[in-house]
């Protein structure tokens, strides 16, 4: 029996109005219930098409279905990281501690230099996409990335630990076309505790398969 598990929309770890005044309730509600949910449904729809194809019930355009799955699955994963990467003002914001702070200091020469580079990356993503801070298991260092859409320019093997959505639906109702102000204000709700947990998990996990000795 050909069958794949389905993805589900995760609940937010806070109320829809919890990130105000930096991200308003209307944006959060639409973003989570409509946009993120669309990616979940899209990934599941692609899996259903593949199931039917494998069972001999339907022919599919394999290239198109695989592209649909990649786009929607990546959208689901990025948002699943994005929500807990933020916390209400007071809990979110400020500066990191722990291993995250140590790596930022060592690699970028301090938090302000890191923040400036990450912000510039997020503000200048071409079209729509994400700013990403990822862990590199090859060097055990941090990397700043620009990801277009959800899945274009995402480097294989890197583990995202902090992401910001710079699709217009993430900010337009509040900031209009001023992506820069949205990115600047987003720092007030960054959940550094969550980022630290993701880094620790990445550091403690076994080396990926591509790093195993031959």
Automatic annotation (TrEMBL):
GO MF terms, alphabetically ordered: metal ion binding; superoxide dismutase activity
Domain Manganese/iron superoxide dismutase C-terminal: 97-198
Domain Manganese/iron superoxide dismutase N-terminal positions: 6-87
Catalytic activity: 2 superoxide + 2 H(+) = H2O2 + O2
A Pfam family this chain is assigned to: Sod_Fe_N
Binding of Mn(2+), residues: 31, 79, 165, 169
Similarity-based family: Belongs to the iron/manganese superoxide dismutase family.
Protein name per UniProt: Superoxide dismutase
């Amino acid at each position: 029996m050909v069958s794949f598990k389905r993805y589900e929309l995760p609940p937010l770890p806070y109320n829809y109005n919890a990130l105000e005044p930096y991200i308003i309730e209307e944006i959060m509600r639409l973003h989570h219930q409509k946009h993120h949910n669309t990616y979940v449904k899209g990934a599941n729809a692609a899996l259903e098409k593949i199931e039917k194809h494998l069972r001999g019930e339907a022919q599919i355009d394999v290239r198109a279905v695989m592209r649909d799955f990649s786009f929607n699955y990546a959208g689901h994963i990025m948002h699943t990281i994005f929500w807990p990467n933020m916390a209400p003002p007071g809990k979110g914001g400020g500066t990191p501690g722990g291993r995250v702070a140590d790596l930022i200091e060592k690699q970028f020469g301090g938090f302000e230099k890191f923040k400036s580079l990450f912000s510039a990356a997020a503000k200048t993503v071409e079209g729509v996409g994400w700013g990403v801070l990822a862990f590199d298991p090859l060097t055990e260092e941090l990397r700043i990335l620009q990801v277009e859409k959800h899945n274009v320019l995402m480097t294989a093997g890197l583990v995202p630990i902090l992401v910001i959505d710079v699709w217009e639906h993430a900010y337009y109702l509040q900031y209009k076309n001023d992506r820069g102000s949205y990115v600047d204000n987003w720092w007030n709700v960054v959940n550094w505790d969550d980022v630290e947990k993701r880094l620790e998990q990445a550091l403690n996990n076994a080396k990926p398969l591509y790093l195993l000795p031959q």
